[in-house]
Protein backbone atom coordinates (compact mmCIF):
# COMPACT_ATOMS: atom_id res chain seq x y z
CA UNK A 1 0.00 0.00 0.00
CA UNK A 2 1.42 3.38 -0.96
CA UNK A 3 1.94 6.01 1.72
CA UNK A 4 -0.84 8.53 2.31
CA UNK A 5 1.72 11.27 2.89
CA UNK A 6 5.30 11.84 4.02
CA UNK A 7 5.59 13.30 7.52
CA UNK A 8 8.74 14.81 9.04
CA UNK A 9 8.99 14.36 12.83
CA UNK A 10 11.38 16.83 14.49
CA UNK A 11 11.92 15.91 18.15
CA UNK A 12 15.07 15.34 20.22
CA UNK A 13 13.46 12.55 22.28
CA UNK A 14 14.05 9.21 20.57
CA UNK A 15 11.13 7.54 22.36
CA UNK A 16 8.72 10.19 21.06
CA UNK A 17 10.05 9.75 17.52
CA UNK A 18 9.72 5.98 17.86
CA UNK A 19 6.15 6.25 19.18
CA UNK A 20 5.12 8.57 16.35
CA UNK A 21 6.82 6.41 13.71
CA UNK A 22 4.97 3.29 14.85
CA UNK A 23 1.62 5.10 15.11
CA UNK A 24 1.91 6.93 11.79
CA UNK A 25 3.26 4.00 9.80
CA UNK A 26 0.38 1.89 11.14
CA UNK A 27 -1.92 4.37 9.37
CA UNK A 28 0.05 4.27 6.09
CA UNK A 29 2.10 7.44 6.51
CA UNK A 30 5.78 7.56 5.56
CA UNK A 31 7.93 8.97 8.38
CA UNK A 32 11.19 10.95 8.26
CA UNK A 33 12.99 11.81 11.52
CA UNK A 34 15.16 14.68 12.72
CA UNK A 35 16.55 15.16 16.25
CA UNK A 36 17.67 18.81 16.01
CA UNK A 37 16.26 22.03 14.64
CA UNK A 38 18.89 22.42 11.91
CA UNK A 39 18.44 18.81 10.82
CA UNK A 40 14.71 19.47 10.69
CA UNK A 41 15.16 22.54 8.48
CA UNK A 42 17.52 20.63 6.17
CA UNK A 43 15.21 17.62 5.84
CA UNK A 44 12.23 19.90 5.24
CA UNK A 45 14.18 21.27 2.26
CA UNK A 46 15.68 18.03 0.94
CA UNK A 47 13.07 15.35 1.67
CA UNK A 48 9.94 17.23 0.51
CA UNK A 49 7.63 16.13 3.36
CA UNK A 50 3.92 16.85 3.15
CA UNK A 51 3.70 17.89 6.82
CA UNK A 52 6.02 18.62 9.76
CA UNK A 53 5.42 17.56 13.37
CA UNK A 54 7.65 19.82 15.43
CA UNK A 55 8.73 19.92 19.07
CA UNK A 56 9.65 23.36 20.42
CA UNK A 57 12.29 22.28 22.97
CA UNK A 58 15.12 21.31 20.62
CA UNK A 59 18.81 21.25 21.66
CA UNK A 60 20.12 23.74 19.08
CA UNK A 61 17.21 25.96 17.99
CA UNK A 62 13.91 26.91 19.54
CA UNK A 63 11.09 25.38 17.56
CA UNK A 64 9.68 28.82 16.72
CA UNK A 65 12.98 29.64 14.96
CA UNK A 66 12.63 26.41 12.98
CA UNK A 67 9.14 27.52 11.90
CA UNK A 68 10.43 30.91 10.79
CA UNK A 69 13.28 29.34 8.79
CA UNK A 70 10.98 26.90 7.03
CA UNK A 71 8.50 29.69 6.32
CA UNK A 72 11.18 31.60 4.40
CA UNK A 73 10.64 29.28 1.44
CA UNK A 74 7.59 27.04 1.90
CA UNK A 75 4.05 26.98 3.28
CA UNK A 76 4.20 23.24 4.12
CA UNK A 77 1.84 22.53 7.05
CA UNK A 78 3.56 22.58 10.46
CA UNK A 79 1.97 21.14 13.60
CA UNK A 80 3.65 21.84 16.93
CA UNK A 81 3.76 19.02 19.50
CA UNK A 82 5.00 20.46 22.78
CA UNK A 83 4.82 20.17 26.55
CA UNK A 84 4.65 23.98 26.70
CA UNK A 85 1.09 24.88 27.68
CA UNK A 86 1.49 28.64 28.10
CA UNK A 87 -0.86 30.74 25.97
CA UNK A 88 2.01 32.99 24.85
CA UNK A 89 3.93 29.98 23.50
CA UNK A 90 0.91 28.82 21.50
CA UNK A 91 0.22 32.28 20.10
CA UNK A 92 3.87 32.88 19.17
CA UNK A 93 4.17 29.51 17.41
CA UNK A 94 0.92 29.98 15.47
CA UNK A 95 1.76 33.57 14.55
CA UNK A 96 5.22 32.41 13.41
CA UNK A 97 3.51 30.20 10.87
CA UNK A 98 2.47 26.92 12.51
CA UNK A 99 -0.98 25.73 11.51
CA UNK A 100 -1.80 23.84 14.70
CA UNK A 101 -0.56 23.27 18.24
CA UNK A 102 -1.02 20.08 20.27
CA UNK A 103 0.07 19.83 23.91
CA UNK A 104 1.90 16.68 25.04
CA UNK A 105 0.75 14.18 26.11
CA UNK A 106 -1.85 13.77 23.39
CA UNK A 107 -4.19 11.07 22.12
CA UNK A 108 -3.20 9.47 18.83
CA UNK A 109 -6.78 9.65 17.49
CA UNK A 110 -6.87 13.42 17.99
CA UNK A 111 -3.42 13.77 16.41
CA UNK A 112 -4.44 11.74 13.35
CA UNK A 113 -7.62 13.79 12.94
CA UNK A 114 -5.66 17.02 13.00
CA UNK A 115 -3.10 15.63 10.55
CA UNK A 116 -5.91 14.73 8.14
CA UNK A 117 -7.28 18.27 8.44
CA UNK A 118 -3.93 19.89 7.61
CA UNK A 119 -3.25 17.56 4.70
CA UNK A 120 -6.76 18.15 3.34
CA UNK A 121 -6.18 21.93 3.56
CA UNK A 122 -2.88 21.61 1.71
CA UNK A 123 -4.41 19.48 -1.03
CA UNK A 124 -7.19 22.01 -1.59
CA UNK A 125 -4.68 24.87 -1.66
CA UNK A 126 -2.40 23.14 -4.18
CA UNK A 127 -5.31 22.30 -6.46
CA UNK A 128 -5.73 26.03 -7.05
CA UNK A 129 -9.46 25.85 -6.50
CA UNK A 130 -11.12 28.60 -4.50
CA UNK A 131 -14.26 27.38 -2.80
CA UNK A 132 -17.17 29.78 -2.97
CA UNK A 133 -19.31 27.64 -0.67
CA UNK A 134 -18.62 25.45 2.35
CA UNK A 135 -20.76 22.80 4.03
CA UNK A 136 -19.91 22.28 7.70
CA UNK A 137 -22.38 20.08 9.51
CA UNK A 138 -25.80 21.68 9.09
CA UNK A 139 -24.29 25.01 7.98
CA UNK A 140 -24.16 26.09 4.33
CA UNK A 141 -21.91 29.12 3.81
CA UNK A 142 -21.92 30.92 0.45
CA UNK A 143 -19.30 33.65 0.19
CA UNK A 144 -20.45 34.94 -3.21
CA UNK A 145 -24.02 35.47 -1.98
CA UNK A 146 -22.81 36.44 1.50
CA UNK A 147 -25.33 33.98 2.86
CA UNK A 148 -25.40 31.44 5.68
CA UNK A 149 -28.09 28.77 6.06
CA UNK A 150 -28.57 26.49 9.05
CA UNK A 151 -30.69 23.42 8.33
CA UNK A 152 -31.78 25.22 5.18
CA UNK A 153 -32.99 28.32 7.03
CA UNK A 154 -31.17 31.63 6.36
CA UNK A 155 -29.31 33.32 9.21
CA UNK A 156 -29.14 37.08 9.28
CA UNK A 157 -25.52 37.97 9.98
CA UNK A 158 -23.76 41.33 9.88
CA UNK A 159 -20.83 41.64 7.48
CA UNK A 160 -18.30 41.29 10.33
CA UNK A 161 -20.08 38.24 11.73
CA UNK A 162 -20.08 36.65 8.28
CA UNK A 163 -16.40 37.46 7.73
CA UNK A 164 -15.46 35.90 11.08
CA UNK A 165 -17.49 32.77 10.31
CA UNK A 166 -16.02 32.48 6.80
CA UNK A 167 -12.46 32.86 8.12
CA UNK A 168 -13.01 30.15 10.74
CA UNK A 169 -14.77 27.90 8.22
CA UNK A 170 -11.91 28.14 5.72
CA UNK A 171 -9.63 26.78 8.46
CA UNK A 172 -12.11 24.27 9.88
CA UNK A 173 -10.53 22.03 12.51
CA UNK A 174 -7.57 24.39 12.99
CA UNK A 175 -6.82 27.09 15.54
CA UNK A 176 -7.12 30.62 14.17
CA UNK A 177 -5.42 33.11 16.47
CA UNK A 178 -7.05 36.30 17.72
CA UNK A 179 -4.48 38.29 15.75
CA UNK A 180 -5.20 36.46 12.49
CA UNK A 181 -8.95 37.00 12.83
CA UNK A 182 -8.54 40.66 13.73
CA UNK A 183 -6.18 41.37 10.83
CA UNK A 184 -8.31 39.49 8.27
CA UNK A 185 -11.64 40.97 9.39
CA UNK A 186 -10.74 44.45 10.69
CA UNK A 187 -7.27 45.11 9.27
CA UNK A 188 -3.77 45.35 10.72
CA UNK A 189 -4.56 48.53 12.68
CA UNK A 190 -6.84 46.44 14.91
CA UNK A 191 -4.59 43.40 15.46
CA UNK A 192 -4.63 43.86 19.26
CA UNK A 193 -8.32 44.77 19.69
CA UNK A 194 -9.43 41.43 21.13
CA UNK A 195 -12.45 43.05 22.81
CA UNK A 196 -13.95 43.65 19.32
CA UNK A 197 -13.55 39.99 18.60
CA UNK A 198 -15.10 38.75 21.85
CA UNK A 199 -18.21 40.87 21.27
CA UNK A 200 -18.71 39.64 17.70
CA UNK A 201 -17.97 36.01 18.55
CA UNK A 202 -20.61 36.21 21.30
CA UNK A 203 -23.15 37.65 18.84
CA UNK A 204 -22.27 35.05 16.21
CA UNK A 205 -22.67 32.20 18.69
CA UNK A 206 -26.08 33.50 19.73
CA UNK A 207 -27.27 33.52 16.11
CA UNK A 208 -25.88 30.03 15.52
CA UNK A 209 -27.50 28.77 18.73
CA UNK A 210 -24.06 27.69 19.89
CA UNK A 211 -23.48 27.03 23.58
CA UNK A 212 -19.92 28.13 24.58
CA UNK A 213 -19.96 25.52 27.36
CA UNK A 214 -20.70 22.70 24.91
CA UNK A 215 -19.96 24.13 21.46
CA UNK A 216 -21.12 22.58 18.19
CA UNK A 217 -19.56 25.14 15.89
CA UNK A 218 -16.98 27.46 17.49
CA UNK A 219 -14.56 26.27 20.14
CA UNK A 220 -12.63 28.73 22.29
CA UNK A 221 -8.88 28.14 22.62
CA UNK A 222 -8.32 30.26 25.77
CA UNK A 223 -5.89 33.12 25.28
CA UNK A 224 -5.03 31.89 21.77
CA UNK A 225 -7.98 32.07 19.40
CA UNK A 226 -10.89 30.00 18.08
CA UNK A 227 -11.38 26.75 16.20
CA UNK A 228 -14.29 25.85 13.91
CA UNK A 229 -15.35 22.35 14.87
CA UNK A 230 -15.11 19.79 12.09
CA UNK A 231 -18.19 17.54 12.43
CA UNK A 232 -16.58 14.83 10.28
CA UNK A 233 -13.81 14.19 12.84
Note down, in words, how this protein is organized:
The protein has 2 domains: 6-126, 3-Layer(aba) Sandwich (Rossmann fold); 133-228, Winged helix-like DNA-binding domain superfamily/Winged helix DNA-binding domain (Arc Repressor Mutant, subunit A, Orthogonal Bundle). The protein has 8 helices and 12 strands. The chain is globular. Helix 3 (63-70) links the parallel strand 3 and strand 4 (78-82). Helix 2 (37-46) runs parallel beside helix 3 (63-70), helix 6 (159-170) packs across helix 7 and helix 6 (159-170) packs across helix 8 (194-208). The strands form 3 sheets. It has a 5-stranded parallel β-sheet, sandwiched between helices. A 4-stranded antiparallel β-sheet has the order 6-7-8-9, with helices on one face. Strands 10-12-11 form a 3-stranded antiparallel β-sheet. The longest helix has 19 residues, at 108-126. It has 233 residues and is α/β, with parallel strands linked by helices.
In short:
With 233 residues, the chain is an alpha/beta fold.
CATH class division of the largest domain: Alpha Beta
Q: Which stretches are poorly predicted, pLDDT < 50 over at least 5 residues?
A: none
Could you give the count of β-strands? 12
Kindly identify the CATH topology of the largest domain: Rossmann fold
Main sheet: strands, sense, barrel: 5 strands, parallel
Calculate the mean pLDDT score and round it.
90
Strands in their spatial order, largest beta sheet: 2-1-3-4-5
List SSEs in N-to-C order. Answer: EHEHEHEHEHEEEEHEHHEE
State the fourth-level CATH superfamily of the largest domain.
Response regulator
Shape field: globular
Amino acid sequence: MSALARILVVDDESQIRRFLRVALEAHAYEVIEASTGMEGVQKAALEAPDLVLLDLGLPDLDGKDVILRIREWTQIPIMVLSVRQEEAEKVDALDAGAQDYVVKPFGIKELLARIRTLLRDRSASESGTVQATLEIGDLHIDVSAHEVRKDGEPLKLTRKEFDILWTLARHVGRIVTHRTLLVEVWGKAHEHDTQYLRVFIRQLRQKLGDDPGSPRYIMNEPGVGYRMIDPSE
